Amino acid sequence: MDALRISLQVLLVLTSGLLIPLVLLHKGKGGGLSDMFGGGVSSSIGSSGVAERNLNRLTVIIAVVWAVVIVLLGLIQRVSN
C-alpha cells in the first residue's frame, strides 16, 4: 500500500506542476484581471483555434487526472486508518 501511495503522491506533484503553466497559457477572456494589466487590448493575430482547442483538451485531461489522484489518496488514507 505504501508503494501505491508514494506513486500517487508523485503523480499528484507532477500533475500539479503541469496544471499551473497550462492554466496560465490560456488566453484571457476579458473582464477580469487581464484587462487591468493591458491584456484586453492584445490582438488575436498569434493565436490559433486548433492550438487553443488542444490546450483546452490537455488542461481538462490533466485536471481530471489530478482530481482522481486526490480522491484515490483520500480513499487510501481512509482505508489505512
Automatic annotation (TrEMBL):
<keyword id="KW-0811">Translocation</keyword>
<comment type="similarity">
    <text>Belongs to the SecG family.</text>
</comment>
<dbReference type="Pfam" id="PF03840">
    <property type="entry name" value="SecG"/>
</dbReference>
<dbReference type="GO" id="GO:0043952">
    <property type="term" value="P:protein transport by the Sec complex"/>
</dbReference>
<comment type="function">
    <text>Involved in protein export. Participates in an early event of protein translocation.</text>
</comment>
<keyword id="KW-0653">Protein transport</keyword>
<dbReference type="GO" id="GO:0015450">
    <property type="term" value="F:protein-transporting ATPase activity"/>
</dbReference>
<dbReference type="GO" id="GO:0009306">
    <property type="term" value="P:protein secretion"/>
</dbReference>
<keyword id="KW-0813">Transport</keyword>
<keyword id="KW-1003">Cell membrane</keyword>
<feature type="transmembrane region" description="Helical">
    <location>
        <begin position="6"/>
        <end position="25"/>
    </location>
</feature>
<dbReference type="InterPro" id="IPR004692">
    <property type="entry name" value="SecG"/>
</dbReference>
<feature type="transmembrane region" description="Helical">
    <location>
        <begin position="58"/>
        <end position="76"/>
    </location>
</feature>
<keyword id="KW-0812">Transmembrane</keyword>
<protein>
    <recommendedName>
        <fullName>Protein-export membrane protein SecG</fullName>
    </recommendedName>
</protein>
<dbReference type="GO" id="GO:0065002">
    <property type="term" value="P:intracellular protein transmembrane transport"/>
</dbReference>
<keyword id="KW-1133">Transmembrane helix</keyword>
<dbReference type="GO" id="GO:0005886">
    <property type="term" value="C:plasma membrane"/>
</dbReference>
<keyword id="KW-0472">Membrane</keyword>
